Every structure is written in structure tokens, then in C-alpha cells.
From TrEMBL:
Protein name: Tetratricopeptide repeat protein 19 homolog, mitochondrial isoform X1
SUPFAM superfamilies recorded: TPR-like
PANTHER family documented for this protein: TETRATRICOPEPTIDE REPEAT PROTEIN 19 (PTHR13143), TETRATRICOPEPTIDE REPEAT PROTEIN 19, MITOCHONDRIAL (PTHR13143:SF6)
A single GO cellular-component term on record: mitochondrial inner membrane
Gene Ontology biological-process entries: mitochondrial respiratory chain complex III assembly
Localization: Mitochondrion
Keyword Cytoplasm in annotation: no
Lineage of producing organism: Eukaryota, Metazoa, Ecdysozoa, Arthropoda, Hexapoda
Residue runs in coiled coils: none
Major location category of this protein: mitochondrion
InterPro entries attached to this UniProt entry: TPR-like_helical_dom_sf, TTC19
Gene3D superfamilies from the UniProt entry: Tetratricopeptide repeat domain
């Protein structure tokens, strides 16, 4: 019996980068779905501006032109105009090179890497983030610097997506103790809490892939608790964590917990009118109910998922709903015999 894994939430995206020099804002068995909220994607990129010291000024200096060009690229990314954003970023890179701005060049590489990650171009993202890391270390940043930890965390997760499980595991095992230490010494720092929760979340996903479900469950619970501490219970950004928690529990045959987590995720998806994610969650709920032997309930939720997927033209989810319904039919035939 298979489930699908929801793709990274805005929580994951927002915690990836260092913040802008403005007041801080809030920051396998499940289906991955992109979250296309412009606010969320904007946060993903704008958070990293202060990583290399860029600020906003009134006078139009060459440095300001560079910053504004990068902002134009981010706006294009917000509008999902990825090719246009790529072109603007190459222009920004040339501008930074003409200015001989080391920080500017590094920052453009960082945004390019994040764009590649957004587009799931993992090999390209890996190369770009590795270059950013190299440049930071050449500048004298230490391994326990938060900026270095950020990049290391991204690289560990990218390795997971590229199927480099051992490399990914090494990356997380290197990163987690460092961010845990920072979190213990800075308990009120929201940014560090975000990165800590992100690290736990991604590591939990990796552990699901390696079939270490109990370890994954504990990591995901830690991520969820961290997330709730920052944003409260009534938020729509914890859906993927709840979904993955449900997967881990289902694999451990903790079906009551699995169902509780998935139902909470469905309620949150309904609040945000995110019908695509709701359909995926309904499929996973149907599979859990099937595992419990509740065929009629399972059919109800998988059928609902099929209708929602049809309405949103999410044909991948339609196929998954049909697989769920076919599995139910197989079980019904067995019972008839």
C-alpha cells in the first residue's frame, strides 16, 4: 500500500534564507504539491537579502541598481516567470561583476540557487549552493555560522532529492547538532527556531525514505512542535508536516495517530481552500482507512479526492485516487470470496 508525500511547504521555503533588514515577520507516503502563494515565494527569496548586506536606499547608486535588478528577478519568480527571472539574474550577475562586488556576486548566486531549487533543478541548485558555500568560507565565515548552517542544510536536502542518501545523512548529522546548540543558547530567536524546525522536518523526510519510521516520527513531532510554537495551531503551513507524520505513524501501524494527524491536515487545507492539497490528503486518509479495513469510509474519501482532483485538473492526483479506489475494489472482491 503506497502513499505520496506532499512537497515542501512555505514553512520550508521561508526558513531557507537569511532575513531582510526590516522587522521580522512570521516566519514514502505523501504527495508533494507546490505552494504557489506569491507572499510565500517572496518571503523565500527576500529573507536572504541581508545575508550579503544589501539594503534599501533612496539614491540611485550603481549598488542600488544592482539591488533593484535582483528585486525585479524576485518579482518575476513571485509571478512564476522563471525564464524571465533567470535572464534578469544573469544581468544582475554581470552588473555585480562589473562593480567587482564580491558580496553582490555571492548573493546573485544564492538567489540563482534558490530559483533552481524552486524549479526542482536539483543538480543545478547543488552546484550553485556549493559555490555560495565556498565563497562564504573564503570570506572567513566559520562552520558554525548561521549562514553556513543554512547552506549546509539546503545541500543536505538537495542530496536527498538527488538520491544521494548517504551524503544527505552525513549532511544532516553534521548540521543538526550545530543548529540544536544555537537553539539552546538562543531560545527566543525566531529565525533559529525556524531553521531548527526545518532541519528536523527535512531530516524526518529522509528517515521516512530510509524506512526508519520511529526515528522519523520523533523528528517530525519535534518539527511540528517547533512550528506550532512559532505560528500557533491554526495555520495552514503545517500541512506537510502533519501529512508526513501520518505516513510515519501508518507505517508503524499507529493508525489512530495517523488518522488524527491527517484529519487535522485536511481541516487546515479546507481553511485555506487548497483543494489540490485536500485531494491528496483525502487519498492518504482513504489508504489509512483501507489499512484499518474500513472499506466504505475509504471509498468515500478516495472518491471525494477523485472529484476534487478532476475539478482542479490535477491529473497526477486523479491517478492516485483511481489507484486507491482500485485497491479498495480488490479488497472487496477478496471479502466476497
Amino acid at each position: 500500500m503506497s502513499y505520496r508525500i506532499l512537497r515542501c511547504s512555505c514553512y520550508v521555503k521561508r526558513a531557507l534564507c537569511i532575513r531582510l533588514n526590516t522587522p521580522k515577520s512570521k516566519r514514502n507516503m505523501f504527495v508533494h504539491k507546490k505552494n504557489n502563494s506569491n507572499y510565500k515565494i517572496a518571503s523565500f527569496f527576500s529573507l536572504s537579502i541581508s545575508l550579503f548586506g544589501f539594503g534599501l536606499k533612496d539614491d540611485e547608486t550603481p549598488e542600488d541598481k544592482l539591488t533593484n535588478t535582483i528585486k525585479r528577478a524576485i518579482m518575476s519568480i513571485n509571478n512564476q516567470q522563471y525564464e524571465k527571472a533567470e535572464q534578469i539574474l544573469h544581468l544582475a550577475l554581470r552588473m555585480a561583476q562589473d562593480l567587482q562586488s564580491r558580496d553582490g556576486i555571492t548573493y546573485v548566486y544564492d538567489v540563482m540557487a534558490n530559483l533552481a531549487l524552486e524549479r526542482e533543478q536539483y543538480e543545478k541548485a547543488e552546484k550553485l549552493f556549493s559555490e555560495v558555500m565556498k565563497r562564504l568560507l573564503e570570506e572567513g565565515y566559520q562552520e558554525d555560522n548561521l549562514k553556513v548552517i543554512h547552506i549546509s542544510l539546503k545541500l543536505a536536502n538537495i542530496a536527498h532529492h538527488l538520491g544521494k542518501v548517504e551524503k544527505s545523512m552525513l549532511g544532516f548529522n553534521w548540521t543538526l547538532p550545530k543548529i540544536e546548540k544555537r537553539a539552546e543558547s538562543n531560545p527566543d530567536d525566531v529565525e533559529i527556531k525556524e531553521i531548527f524546525g526545518l532541519a528536523k522536518y527535512w531530516f524526518g523526510q529522509l528517515l521516512i525514505k530510509t524506512n526508519e519510521y520511529e526515528k522519523a516520527r520523533l523528528q517530525l513531532i519535534s518539527a511540528y512542535e517547533c512550528f506550532i510554537e512559532i505560528y500557533g495551531f491554526k495555520n495552514t503551513e503545517s500541512i506537510t508536516i502533519l501529512n508526513d507524520l501520518s505516513v510515519a505513524c501508518a507505517k508503524l501501524n499507529r493508525l489512530s495517530e495517523a488518522k488524527s494527524y491527517i484529519l487535522t491536515a485536511i481541516r487546515l487545507a479546507k481553511v485555506s481552500d487548497d483543494y489540490q492539497q485536500e485531494a491528496i490528503l483525502q487519498i492518504n486518509l482513504g489508504l489509512i482507512l483501507l489499512q484499518e479495513g474500513l472499506l466504505n469510509d475509504a471509498k468515500l474519501h478516495c472518491s471525494q479526492a477523485w472529484r476534487l482532483s478532476k475539478e482542479t485538473k490535477d491529473y497526477s492526483a486523479v491517478r492516485q485516487a483511481e489507484i486507491c479506489l482500485n485497491q479498495i475494489k480488490i479488497h472487496e472482491v477478496k471479502l466476497e470470496k
